[in-house]
Amino acid sequence: MRKLIALMAFAIVTVCSPVMVHAEDGKKAVAVLDVEAVIVNSKQGKSATAQLQKLEKDLQALIKDNRTKLADLEKSLLKDGKEKMSKAEFEKARNDFTTAAKKYQDKINEARKNLEDKKVALLGAIHKNVSQIAADVADEHKFQVVIDRKSVVLVQEELDITRDVLTRLDKQFP
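^ thats the sequence. predicted structure below, dont judge the formating
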């Protein structure tokens, strides 16, 4: 039992202790990049954000328009109702309403899918560009590893390549 406790204590100390990364041949071992800040502040990121906001606004307008049309159809169906319509007419009107509701939902789903596809495409292109530029900066400064800023609690200023990557991204992709 004591051996098990000692082994567990050793494992906890080993896992929880800070790790030093050593550089060889004068290379700096680790650089830090705030990918989110680069995307948010870059010209390419701002352009993508504007495009996505427009698509989102269009989607919201489509949803509002479709809700209004469906509400009008429903009011018409309830107003004319079973009392004023024959059973066959009422069934046809109800089927028309159901068909219209499905059609509107399909339009909304397609618009949402288009929005998501556009988001994936835009962010994928930006991530690809950021990765390439980060690799170039890391090579130039002889960094062996680039870590996302979200994973780091504290970093020295000279190890943060965010500004350099942002500047180059804006130059290469205005």
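The chain is about 75% helix and 5% strand.
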